[in-house]
Amino acid sequence: MTEKSTSPVPSEFCTEPAVPGDKMEGLSLLTDLYQLTMAQGYWKSGRANTQAVFHVFYRTQPFNGGYSICSGLEPALQWLHALRFTKSDIDYLATLNGNDGKPLFDRAFLDYLISMGPLSLDIDAVPEGTVVFPFEPLVRVKGPILQAQLVETALLCMINFGTLVATKAARICASCQGEPVLEFGFRRAQGLDGALTASRAAYIGGCAATSNVLAGKRYGIPVAGTHAHSWVQSFPSQQEAFDHWAETAPNNCVLLVDTYDTLTGVRDAIKTAKKLVERGYKFAGILLTAVILLGSVLKLVNSSMLLVSLMQRSLLAMISMSISLPLLSIRVLLSTCGVLALSSLLATISLLLVVYINSLLLWKRVRPPGSHASS
What is the rounded CA–CA span in Å between residue 46 and residue 64? Predict the structure, then answer.
């Protein structure tokens, strides 16, 4: 098998080389049953080596957008290189029966599969990270129709899912206008393999880091993260949890403030931040999870005072003590499931927050020294 495309991802992206067979052995049955029954049909009719061309493309843009970002090519090429039918594969296929109770596959066909050897397919593809559009071929497979048919399902799976996540990541990164976006979707991903695929695709789409440590090791993606709600819940009080976290990670102290009540969480974070600054460290910021933020947004529909109160009672206090607030440089948490749909809404809210905070900073600069707000 030959291919005429390589991934544009920097060499430091893949710390474990994509050698033929790397981590892809034993996946030859990663296909639909009808692909195998069609393959048998080509073999029986003497058309197994008839030359054919298959194209991987999509019809409509996801998320009602104007473009997509291609991803998934490198894993697909690894799988193609490694595709060999083993005795275990053949033994399993031999157990499958048709409607009459007789074997679904001829023994001679199964012998043909195990003796087929390396694929003799030519692969042309656009590089990963390329902007693509509907009906544009992302991958072209040329070769014997039996072989091309067998690889169709897996190629569609790897290219489709990777491209979907990379596209969403690119849209969120674009909405953040250069600010870093972190991918935290591991726990909501579609299985362990889906989590690795999503972390890799999100990085190709523009995310700056991932919470997935194995993805960091395997693909060279920067890793990032702070504590979870369970850390706060394990202490008698939220304030004690924050203070202990500042002791544990003083050089990367980001506090998750929405375990119980967001406003209380921010006020407690301010207290911890003051102590941290007094010790000579920089307070890295606060974290609001997307699910909790969704609840706040829904409340915001009924009362805009929630957001105003949060900024007036918490953000202004942080500004007055000259502590840098991370919301001035928005960091978005990217999940690989339904939370993704919030990206446009979150970007709008983030912009409003930045405008409001900047106005507070301006007010602080122009206020005469020693002046106080009247009650």
Answer: 45
Global confidence as pTM: 0.72
List, edge to edge, every strand of the sheet that includes 332-334.
209-210, 181-183, 332-334
Sign of CA dihedral 176, 180, 184, 188: positive
- State both tokens at 206: 């523009």
Beta carbons of 28 and 84 less than 8 angstroms apart: yes
Could you tell me if 295 and 303 are in contact, meaning their C-beta atoms sit under 8 angstroms apart? no
pLDDT of residue 325: 43
Can you give the pLDDT at residue 350? Answer: 55
Question: In this structure, what DSSP letter does residue 67 have?
Answer: -
Task: Give the other-Cβ count within 10 Å of 338's Cβ.
Answer: 11
What is residue 287's predicted lDDT score, i.e. its pLDDT? Answer: 82
> What single-letter amino acid sits at 63?
F
Q: Give the fold, CATH level 3, of 2-164.
A: nicotinate phosphoribosyltransferase (3.20.140)
Contact at 8 Å (CB) between 231 and 245? Answer: yes
Q: How far apart are CA 200 and CA 207, in angstroms?
A: 9
Rounded to 10°, the helix 238-248/262-278 angle is 40
- Of 84, 72, 71, 70, residue with least CA distance to 20: 84
Task: Tell me which residues of the chain have a pLDDT lower than 70.
Answer: 1-25, 290-375
Residue 360 confidence (pLDDT): 54
C-alpha–C-alpha distance, residues 249 and 247, integer Å: 6
Distance, C-alpha 117 to centroid of its chain = 35
187-196 long-range contacts (CB < 8 A, ≥24 apart) are: 188/335, 188/336, 188/337, 188/339, 189/336, 189/337, 190/336, 194/161, 194/336, 195/336
Host H or E run for residue 149 = helix 145-175
Report the DSSP beta bridge partners of residue 55. 140
Domain boundaries, the chain: 2-164, 229-329
